[in-house]
Design goal:
There is one protein chain. By secondary structure, this protein is of the alpha+beta class. It has a single domain (3-249), classed as Thymidylate Synthase, Chain A (2-Layer Sandwich). It has helices at 3-18, 66-78, 84-91, 111-117, 119-129, 143-146, 179-200, 222-229; strands at residues 20-21, 39-50, 137-139, 156-164, 167-178, 204-218, 239-242, 257-260. It has a 6-stranded mixed β-sheet with strand order 1-2-6-5-4-3. The longest helix has 22 residues, at 179-200. The chain is globular and about 50 Å long. It starts with a helix and ends in a 14-residue tail after the last strand.
């Protein structure tokens, strides 16, 4: 049984059944109509997958643009960039275009913070030189950069890393998530990052835990979520395979990844709230 399929359906059911509706004024709006986008949400959701045991957060219920998702990880953590032209031309990422603050960037966030604080190199060096340290953290939530910023504050904003024998474990902390728009792609992205960091540091990928403070389904997504709940859970367990030719984090490319036993079900158009 595909663990990710079951957990995704359980999450959809819990938000629809036990979540609450937002009230009053909200920030998000629909990209196609400009109307306000209200959501039904729940808080403090956690999911864990043990990559070392073949558990991967790859759901077949909803197809995932997994290659583009991993390229976004390259843009943020390898390239350390907030430049939208780089995202489009080098990595084929277009979904950030709506967040252009007017200067061709997404503002002083994500890759810009990684670059300014040298966060990726600090993490890699820290794990290699002090593996059992308890301060292996990347935080994209930097108040000085976000104060007065007109761009989008990072949603997936923090990772915490721990060496456990031969294994490297990672926890992703996310302040907010649009379930239908981002859940499965965020998971694949950060499992890929876990694999990349582990390889660079001479370790094996271990446990991946994902904590989300506010997990929500937008009003126009409700019927789509109900359709997803009707879909069967796959008997196959897709696996993300990582076979790089180098051990250097900055040499890894999308060609080093592939997915096995992945047979996603039919795509349903999902409107985007921004």
């Amino acid at each position: 049984m595909n663990k990710a399929d079951k957990m995704f359906k359980d999450l959809l059911f819990n938000v629809l059944e036990n979540g609450v509706w937002e009230r009053g004024e909200v920030r998000p709006y629909w990209a196609d109509t400009g109307e306000k986008a209200y959501s039904r949400f729940m808080t403090q959701y956690t999911e864990t997958f043990d990559i070392s045991k073949g558990e991967f957060p790859i759901t077949t219920i909803k197809p995932t643009a997994w290659k583009t998702g991993i390229r976004e990880i390259f843009w943020i953590y390898q390239e350390a960039s907030n430049d939208l032209q780089v995202a489009r031309d080098k990595f084929g990422i277009k979904w950030w275009d709506s967040w252009d603050i007017g200067d061709g960037t997404i503002g002083s966030t994500y890759g810009a913070i990684v670059k300014r604080l040298d966060l990726m190199n600090n993490l890699l060096d820290g794990i290699k030189n002090n593996p059992y340290g308890r301060r292996h953290i990347i935080s994209l939530w930097q108040e000085d950069d976000l104060r007065g910023e007109i761009g989008l504050p990072p949603c997936a904003f923090q990772t915490l890393w721990s060496v456990r024998g031969d294994y490297l474990d990672c926890t992703l902390v996310q302040r907010s998530q649009d379930v239908l728009g981002a859940n499965n792609i965020n998971n694949i992205q950060y499992v890929a990052l876990l694999m990349m960091v582990a390889k660079h540091c001479g370790l094996k990928p271990g446990k991946y835990t994902h904590f989300i403070q506010n997990v929500h389904i937008y009003d126009r997504h409700i019927e789509i979520a109900e359709k997803f709940l009707e879909r069967p859970i796959s008997e196959k367990q897709p696996r993300l395979i990582f076979e790089p030719k180098s051990d250097n984090f900055y040499d890894f490319t999308i060609d080093d990844f592939r997915i096995e036993d992945y047979e996603p079900q039919e795509k349903i158009f999902i409107p985007i709230a921004i």
